[in-house]
Amino acid sequence: MEFDPMRPKWQQIAEEITRRIDRVQYPEGFQLSEVRLAAEFGVNRDTVRKATAALREARLIRTVPNLGTFVARAEDDDQGDA
Questions:
Q1: Closest listed residue to residue 35, CA positions, set 48, 23, 22, 25
Q2: What contacts 24+ positions apart, CB below 8 Å, involve 66-73?
Q3: pLDDT digits over 45-69, tens only?
Q4: What pTM did the predictor assign?
Q5: Beta carbons of 58 and 17 less than 8 angstroms apart
Q6: What whole-number distance in Å separates Cα of residue 73 and Cα of residue 78?
Q7: What does the CA dihedral 1, 51, 81, 75 come to, rounded to 10 degrees?
Q8: Is-contact 32 61, C-beta < 8 A?
Q9: Which helix (H) or strand (E) holds 14?
């Protein structure tokens, strides 16, 4: 991925992960690896953490303590609205 120097890398990574979720390249329940994503995008883990924080806020992913970060299921989002 080539980065736009005028925009934050974390934001561009978050957008790319969102595209992959939308295209079902990362299906519901898929585990996202911070280390793998950092290596793939050629950035440090802090940059990936900023991207995943934005995705968590958008409810596209969820983090389970001691298990990892996963693509959220549609019903995970619905539970927050009840």
A1: 48
A2: 68/31, 68/32, 68/33, 69/31, 69/32, 69/34, 70/29, 70/30, 70/31, 70/32, 71/21, 71/26, 71/27, 71/28, 71/29, 71/30, 71/32, 72/28, 73/28, 73/29
A3: 999 999 999 999 999 999 999 999 9
A4: 0.88
A5: no
A6: 9
A7: 50
A8: yes
A9: helix 9-22
